[in-house]
Amino acid sequence: MTTIPVMAPYGRHIFICTGSFCDPEGKAQQLYTRLARKLGELGHYDNPERVKRGVTPCLGVCSGGPIVVVYPDGVWYHHVDETVLDRIIEEHLHNDQPVEEYIFHRLGEKMIEAW
Ligand code: FES
Hints:
single chain; alpha+beta; Glutaredoxin; 2 helices; binds FE2/S2 (inorganic) cluster
């Protein structure tokens, strides 16, 4: 018999790219660890607004990292360091105000004519 997985409710999912092309100094893994410590109640398993977190080897950007993306918002951040991550947690995840100056893309946004 097949066991169907069970998913606890959550509100957002945040991914951090740990690939060496966008993060040659290897800072992303530390951000991932910091995220676990800083999420507070947003990291609690029984919170329906819970923020799941994950790392990925590449998000298809490959420069300007560490790259962080927040779903389902589809908001993409570049050059995320500890200070910027803390702002993303407080301003975006807690207060629904994305950190505009570090956003380089939004889901559904047309690419700027840069060719
Ligand atoms: S290596 Fe980070 S986006 Fe590709």
